């Protein structure tokens, strides 16, 4: 099992990339009043049939040909439910997939969020032809990063240019810290 929620998000986003998504939205919502940490990953990839959707939470099912098991989604579901939260997955062929995992924030078995800024940075840096929207909310504070906006401003300069990557990492780190006060989650 992955030890951090951010690593589970990375795994799910990689599934979206393999499903040929051109837009992946990742939202992390921390709500202390509701004692909840919620992660929502949406894509506009190929989507799944009803049969694939039902099998997606089975660790002995995968669409990959390089291995016979698919642990990412089942373990993410188990992690959410083990912490008093819940898990939903929805998909439609040709429209994409949405996964939502909620965790009880104060539950002793909730895994830490981990380095979500680095997860988003990694996804952007290694997938410059895919657009990402990242929304991070902590109680009443929020920030949003949309690579489409960055690309428009950069007017053709690739996101994986070293100076741009440095800026993106700083942007993610600084905005996350501004939103959550740098508190470990």
List its traits:
6 strands; Heat Shock Protein 90; globular; 6 helices
What does this structure look like?
- The chain is of the alpha+beta class and 185 residues long.
- It has one domain (5-180): Heat Shock Protein 90 (2-Layer Sandwich), CATH 3.30.565.10.
- It has helices at 5-18, 50-55, 72-82, 116-125, 147-154, 162-180; strands at residues 23-31, 36-43, 86-92, 96-104, 131-138, 141-146.
- The chain has a 6-stranded mixed beta sheet.
- Strand 5 and strand 6 form a beta hairpin.
- Helix 1 (5-18) runs antiparallel to helix 3, helix 1 (5-18) runs parallel beside helix 4 (116-125) and helix 4 runs antiparallel to helix 6.
- The longest helix has 19 residues, at 162-180.
- The radius of gyration is 16 Å and the shape is globular.
- 32% of the residues are buried.
Topology:
Blueprint: H1 5-18, E1 23-31, E2 36-43, H2 50-55, H3 72-82, E3 86-92, E4 96-104, H4 116-125, E5 131-138, E6 141-146, H5 147-154, H6 162-180
Parallel strand pairs: 1-5
Antiparallel strand pairs: 1-2, 2-4, 3-4, 5-6
At a glance:
By secondary structure, this protein is of the alpha+beta class. The chain has a single domain (5-180), classed as Histidine kinase-like ATPase, C-terminal domain (Heat Shock Protein 90).
Structural class: alpha+beta
Assign an overall shape. globular
Average pLDDT: 91
Distance between the termini: 18 Å
Order of helices and strands, N to C? Answer: HEEHHEEHEEHH
Q: Biggest β-sheet: count, sense, barrel?
A: 6 strands, mixed
- Summed up, the domain count is 1
């Amino acid at each position: 099992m992955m030890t951090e929620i951010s690593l589970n998000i990375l795994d799910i986003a990689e599934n979206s990339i393999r499903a040929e998504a051109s837009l992946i939205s990742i939202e992390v919502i921390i709500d202390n009043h509701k004692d909840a940490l919620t992660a929502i990953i949406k894509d506009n990839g190929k989507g799944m049939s009803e049969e694939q959707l039902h099998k997606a939470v089975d660790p002995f099912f995968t669409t990959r040909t390089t291995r016979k098991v698919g642990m990412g989604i089942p373990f993410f579901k188990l992690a959410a439910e083990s912490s008093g939260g819940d898990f939903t997955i929805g998909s439609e062929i040709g429209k994409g997939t949405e996964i939502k995992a909620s965790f009880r924030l104060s539950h002793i078995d909730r895994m830490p969020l981990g380095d979500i800024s680095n997860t988003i940075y990694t996804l952007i840096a290694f997938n410059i032809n895919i657009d990402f929207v990242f929304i991070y909310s902590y109680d009443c504070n929020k920030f949003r990063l949309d690579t489409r906006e960055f690309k428009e401003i950069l007017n053709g300069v690739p996101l994986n240019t070293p100076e741009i990557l440095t800026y993106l990492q700083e942007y993610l780190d600084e905005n996350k810290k501004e939103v959550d006060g740098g508190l470990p989650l």
